[in-house]
């Protein structure tokens, strides 16, 4: 694909905060942004030149949208593959393509794919029905996390199975009978890190891995540099790069890892998009993840990602937003997501804090 | 005024590139932006939640706009004072207020006001008609620049009167007879600098003055630090601060100066808004001018403006934009204005370059 001229239209499937941050950077680079999103008044739509409100199975709306865009991308992995295929059928490039979506939408496909390209994960078992749960649990040493294969985020659709508890077992069995599930072994990890890489037709550029602290399945904080060895960081970047290549991915991709006590890495989850654990990059690096993604998607050369200072990114959840006007000044870079209301435990903003080490 | 909560609506009178850059930063801080602009498809409108296309004398449209906004600001000084008064009459705060507009819209009022508060300017003469031109020219030593009192920008509406030339004299006389003009003495300056300051109800915070290179009345380049003494910088900042206070200005304000051979400063032009010579600040400072302006207007605390590195900001004019996709990478921060077409000699983007000194 030729490099898009400033003024070209970049379409985004999805209207959430990641779409909003992509749209803001696309505008800074001179593009018009067009949002396709089922919800009215979306965070991304409110900063974009155009928006259409339609469901992801509305082929007619997708076709019109595709024709109005010079290239299309997506901001989250739960966009139906069918929607991406409809845009491609209408003659518009979608970057990244359908493969990254297909692989990442299903935890079973995802882990299988990672293992196939030589990236280790925790052990796992697919569950056809809830009846298979006891046997699978037994195979994984008696404990694990039951997850729906599709459509989970921020810890939703997950049940922790550690200590025997009849009520939890019953809930787990019911869930596994209701929807396809996967049982994942526990990883007694020391810490979690993630690799965020950007792939363009010319190659892959990786940000430094961040160390991520979760609370109840929700990312609270990412710190850079991660408290690991250079070797661990390098293994993480290599895996992210290999994955981007194997998926023929164009754009940003994140791969989350457990760092095990011996320093081994187990890949946990793939996100075929800009990622919460890369939110520190626009402030701390020459080129941030949103600009990199737009550059890749637009066929522009990727930028350098040299980090300028140590940094901590903290997510702001729900009502915590109320303290924002006075809690942060310009030295802590605030990014607010424009969500209506302030739903409990949902990410509504983040702040990047520069760490100056006094030695 | 109470600090606005994230999600509040900030209205902007004007839809050009300054409005666009303000809108992008306002969105990052969590505000919705509403643009009032006479032109369709404006650069600012294309990144804002709402926009209304109406003329600045449309009182009904202004009243509706005012009621839809929690606070209103303006992005350029040629918004009619009447429009600002209509918003205020509808019960919505306008920041900065009408006074900053009134003073800056007329070169005669502006220079008179500056002198009254002790800020020196070049000598000048008001011209009632073109017939007064020879006498005024004589009083200023036989040379000067004839400028329309209102509505000039980027060197438009100016005639240089230095060497006797019948054709130029006739054009100047005709202009001065047609519209109110001012004749300004020549300033044989060494360089030009500007002070960009932000005033909130709590006080004033000043960016470091930049050194500005113009070509044919158009700013080509701003560099920081300016090649002047600390004392010159401090005089510039003091003048900008005094001006903001005298105008009871809330928001960003720029004051351009000639630096004379002895180090004296003559104020040249006031802009009651974010300014081209402050475009280096979002990349190089903790808090950039657009965020500062939104903070002031929203009643949020101003941020610190510590500069992190030496910097050069270059404007990109007209067709120069075509080279952009490959000419700049993420290390040079590109900001494109989303203007349709690429009109010759009009600013369409700028790029901020970090200067690393090798010592």
Evaluate the radius of gyration of chain A. 20 Å
Beginning-to-end CA distance, first to last residue of chain A = 49 Å
Low-confidence stretches of chain A: none
Q: Approximately what portion of the residues of chain A adopt beta-strand conformation?
A: 25-35%
Overall structural class of chain A, as computed from helix and strand content, comes to alpha+beta
C-alpha geometry of chain A: globular
Mean pLDDT of chain A: 93
Largest interface: A-B, 49 and 49 residues
Number of strands of chain A: 17
Q: Major β-sheet of chain A, in short?
A: 9 strands, antiparallel
Oligomerization: homodimer
Number of helices of chain A: 11
Specify the helix fraction band of chain A: 25-40%
* Succession of helices and strands of chain A: EHEEHEHHHEHEEHEEEEEHEEHHEHEE
